[in-house]
Amino acid sequence: MTYFSSRGLAEPIRLILAYAGVDYEAVHLGAYNRQDQPEPFKQLVASGVLPFDMVPMWREPGGLQVTQSAAVIRHLARVHNLCGDNEQQRTRIEELVEGFSDTRSGIQAAAAQPDKAAARQDVETKVLPKWLGYYEKILKTQNSKVLVGDRVSYADILLYYFIENVTEQKLFKLDEYPFLTALFKEIGAHPGIAAHTQNPNRYPVQYVFN
């Protein structure tokens, strides 16, 4: 997999690969900078292999190449049986994953405020309790550690990463969310996930508010 030297859009993919126990070659393009992109990325764009001039890029020995991160995630989830057991479950998983996009949009909208202290407060007290509260309710309704069915799907892994990301930034506390806590511990205890998250060479969290 080819990506910049950061978590970014590639980190959910890395976690899915870690959960599935997939060995892969990681190609690091250097630190992302909007004004001065790293030379390896410029060379990759110039080569014409990126249909939208964007990474991450996932390549397989058989010749398959996928770029858009959501497409890579769905492809790997299908290949490694992380999409539920039937069409109803697959559709439900996709619905829940779309909720993460709305959550991120809410964070971005709040963070765009000129007053960063007020923006952070909105994220901590409004955006995250609202959206993560939805997922807590879903888990509670079915009294489960996973969002859909009775086994882990890629939606659970993405939710794990989202929780990890906002708690590392001290934007959210799990104390009052027992079902989210149970899911977070369940996914985090998986040997592949634990090995990835505890790797000292893992890229650091990227802060919304510095």
UniProtKB/TrEMBL annotation:
One Pfam family it belongs to: GST_C_3
Cross-referenced InterPro entries: Glutathione-S-Trfase_C-like, Glutathione-S-Trfase_C_sf, Glutathione_S-Trfase, Glutathione_S-Trfase_N, GST_C, GST_superfamily, Thioredoxin-like_sf
Segments forming domain GST C-terminal: 86-205
Lineage summary: Eukaryota, Amoebozoa, Tubulinea, Elardia, Arcellinida
Source organism per UniProt: Arcella intermedia
GO molecular function: glutathione transferase activity
CDD domains, sorted: GST_C_Sigma_like, GST_N_Sigma_like
Protein name: Glutathione transferase
Domain GST N-terminal intervals: 1-84
GO term, biological process aspect, one: glutathione metabolic process
